[in-house]
Amino acid sequence: MKIHIRNGRLIDPKNNIDAIQDVFIAAGKIVAIGSAPADFHANQTLDATGQIVCPGLVDLSARLREPGFEYKATLESELRAAAAGGITSLACPPDTEPVLDEPGLVEMLKHRAKLLNLAHVYPLGALTRQLEGKQLTEMCELTEAGCVGFSHATAPLTDTLVMRRAMQYASTFGFRVWLHPEDVYLARNGVAHDGEVAARLGLTGIPSSAETIALATILTLAQETGAHVHVCRISSREGVEMLRKAKQQGVTVSSDIGINHLHLTEHDIGYFDAQCHLKPPLRSQRDRDALRQGLVDGTIDAICSDHTPVDDDAKLAPFAESEPGATGLELLLPLTLKWAQESGTPLLKALASVTSEPAALLGITAGHLAVGACADVCVFDMEEYWKVAPQSLLSQGKNSPFLGLELAGKVRATIVAGHLVHQA
Amino acid sequence: MKLPDAEQLLVELAEKIRPLIQGKVALVGIHSGGAWLAERLKEILDGDVPLGALDISFYRDDFEQRGLHPQVKPSHIPFEVEDCHIILIDDVLYTGRTIRGAMNELFDYGRPAKITLAVLIDRGGRQMPVEAQIVGTRCELEAHQSLELLRDDSGKFSLKLHENL
Amino acid sequence: MPQNPQLNKNGELQHLLSIEGLSKDILRHILDTAESFTGVSEREVKKVPLLRGKTVCNIFFENSTRTRTTFEIAAKRLSADVVSLNVNSSSQSKGETILDTVDNLTAMHSDMFVVRHSQSGAAHFIARHVAPHIHVINAGDGRHAHPTQGLLDVFTIRRYKPDMHNLRVAIVGDLLHSRVARSEIHALTTLGVPEVRVIAPKTLLPENVDRMGVQVYHDMREGLKGVDVVMMLRLQNERMSGALLSSAQEYFKCYGLTQEKLALAKPDAIVMHPGPMNRGVEIDSAVADGAQSVILPQVTYGIAVRMAVMSILAGNTE
User: Which of A319, A415, C136, C219 fits a disulfide with A377 by CB distance 3.0 to 4.6 angstroms?
Assistant: First the structure.
């Protein structure tokens, strides 16, 4: 399939390109940029005039809900949502049912995803069996089956000896360890940031120290073991500061932030809006500002969607009884653009947070569009607004704090491995 | 139209009521105008006659449409209604709905022996089968007009005509 | 931030979910209306016909005989038909959701729901989902609010200390877990009480509580100096476990109201408690039954205040 993307503004952060350039695709790869190769006859031409052409987005965390939670969402529905969101590669956490701790399960997931021919799926294997925090998983076997790293998702890993050993083992083979910093005791029963909003609303709070105490443990062990650790979903300003210092000291640590935390604070809970019930919780304005600063100065490496679709009933309950999480695949791009616009961050840098940076963290070659690269492309209209509503979302998860709002940034075409998987 | 002198009317009304002040009798005024009049009538007629006031907000028939009247003042009936002759006093008698509500409320306090209605002005336009046995004066007003009893700082009464367009 | 869900398009009260978000005028209107209703309770026929033909449904997902009974009495005195449901037992355990319960009751032609639930935000949640003509009264949601209690407490204070702009009020006890305290604080600050003090150990105070407009004291003797009103809060038994407190005895020693501590307040200070009391834990019997206690009148005023809330809501239909 030969595709010619004409007259679009090509933004490729990794290769530092921001210019009007045509892109030529054949046999699943980028074959030329700028002028057509000899004898190139396109089967399909996409007119990208006034639109932006960028590498397909790389999402570090998307819950696809298979296996086990098919009533919330399915592989097919969520990968279609990813395509609609311009996402061509994504990593999924191991907290499925059963947990992704067996090579067979990983192979099956990869196989099923491949059959759908939508985004490339990169599973994160469980760091411990059943995510119980006691015994290590067969990390080599799991890597062979397709895992790109090992995560403990949001399951608690309280035994520090196990954490240390898991890091040592993973780093023996150069595997990356993905950890969510949350102290299980301080976070117990908490549903919101332990600040003035939770105080007024009578909600059990999770103090920032729940994050920083766990982060201190993670960073100390990371430094000691030399493991590559990726800190997932940082939420507090103190946490950002700790990461900054750790990086300055040369600790091999990276981090990401969920897209909602880039925009929202505890005040958005308003009158107990369960759509703002998230994990980690939305914290104060000062925290949000520190997170934004962290992204700009590189303390935080990437933005992810933290896609967590839930079924409709799950949010139809009083705040603390609702299921935490937000749908995110289709919101990653527009919300990244919104942040870029509000903060005055150039598009080239902003898009790096969702393309080249996360690709590097996953250890995959995606996230850029040099000649010879796999043709994973996203074409979008930066000026076009669309309304976030159950009808407009392809994901089975209709849960978002942004429901009812209009966002700018509509994906017009998504190409994965040279195939057009979404067009609007 | 020329408005009657409220003070003069009140004196005349008092004389019409005077023969009734005997035995177990009480004056009950309906807030606010009727209550003011009842207070003054007590002074004119007999300092010892029991005095009460009714705020009929809880007995109005337009609660569904208009909600609770914002200026609710408490009703105050400091005497035994049972077997009492109540002289019910109001400033302006119009549709008769206020009187209907007032009677309902009075009966929640006890069973009066008799109720006599005395009003300063009867302006006609009845929507209920209610009549005042004692009337200061009668006049006809248009539907868009209303009559208000005013009391100044010295306690002097006067009448004001409103054109509600 | 969406529009205040308690108000209808005309800015009138459609639901009573929390004191927070209500203007001084709305609060005063409720209190003034309650004044009129106190008289009704003293008549032979303790009823007025305002809610005749209406059905008030008490939906208590969390048990409470006291509060439910006062709401029942209040509704009956307004001539309403009353249905009371203790939901925790039957349907909830069968997995029926809150909304299913509410929908069933709506189908039975209820006009007003009085709701109590163990989760903060439950009343807001229900109000968001009921049919437009139904009014919701929050009878207590988790730790968030108990607006009728806050109102009756302020009504009581107003009765004994009419000049609210000159008062020092102290609220003592487990504020962290108290919906009553939160409602009291909002009512007092909205009505212009210049000094509201909270007295509790750090473990029993919410984070950033000073942002609610109160002064924080950890020393009860300091906190009680010169106050006009002492509002005690109930201490639940379960607070002794969970590392919040050490023992009931130590709590009583530091934060219990005794005659000796009360003497530090103004000589004519009044003592209040939302009930039920834990004698010997947060309050001494001598004080609870003493001359300065207005705990029993609080209960009577509770009926008048609830009658006021119900009639105002019932009269506000768009």
Answer: A415
Nearest chain A Cα to C3, which residue? A271
Residue identified by tokens 């990726």 is A230
Mean pLDDT on B57-84: 84
What pLDDT score does B2 carry?
78
3-state secondary structure (DSSP) of residue A3:
strand
Average pLDDT over residues A76-102: 96
Q: In whole angstroms, what is the distance from residue B90 CA to residue A2 CA? A: 94
Span C80-110, pLDDT tens digits: 999 988 776 555 555 578 888 888 878 778 8
Q: Which of A184-188, B71-75, C188-192 has the lowest mean pLDDT?
A: B71-75
Catalytically active residues of A are 306
B-chain CB neighbours of C45 within 8 Å are 107-109
Contact (CB<8Å) A199/C207: yes
Question: Which residues of A have a CB under 8 Å from any CB of C?
Answer: 194-196, 198-203, 205, 207, 267, 270-272, 274, 313, 316-321
C-beta neighbour count of B74 within 10 angstroms: 17
- Given this model, what pLDDT does residue C93 score? 52
Contact list in C for residue A194 (CB cut-off 8 A) is 207
CA distance A384 to A368: 24
CB C277 within 8 A of CB C299: no
Kindly list the residues from chain C whose CB atom is less than 8 angstroms away from the CB atom of residue B63.
50, 314-315
Probe site for chain B from C16, C25, C32 (most B CB atoms < 10 A): C32
Say how far apart CA A342 and CA A338 lie, in whole Å: 6
End-to-end CA distance of chain B: 17
For the cut 70, the answer to whether the pLDDT of residue A104 exceeds it is: yes
Which residue of chain C is at minimal alpha-carbon distance from B78?
A: C43
- What is the ipTM metric for this complex? 0.91
Task: Write the CA distances from A275 to A80, A200, C100, integer angstroms.
Answer: 22, 18, 20
Contacts of A32 (CB under 8 A, 6+ apart): A23, A24, A40, A371
- Helix/strand/coil percentages in chain B, nearest 5: 30, 30, 40
**SS3 state at A367:** coil
pLDDT band at residue B70 using 50, 70 and 90 as cut-offs: low
DSSP codes of every residue in A379-406: EEEEEEEEE--TTT--SS----TTTT-E
Angstrom distance (rounded) from CA C183 to CA C175: 11
Cβ-based neighbours of B124, under 8 Å, separated by 6 or more:
B94, B138, B139, B140, B141
This prediction has a pTM of 0.90
pLDDT at A401 over 80: yes
Q: For chain A, give the longest Cα–Cα distance.
A: 69
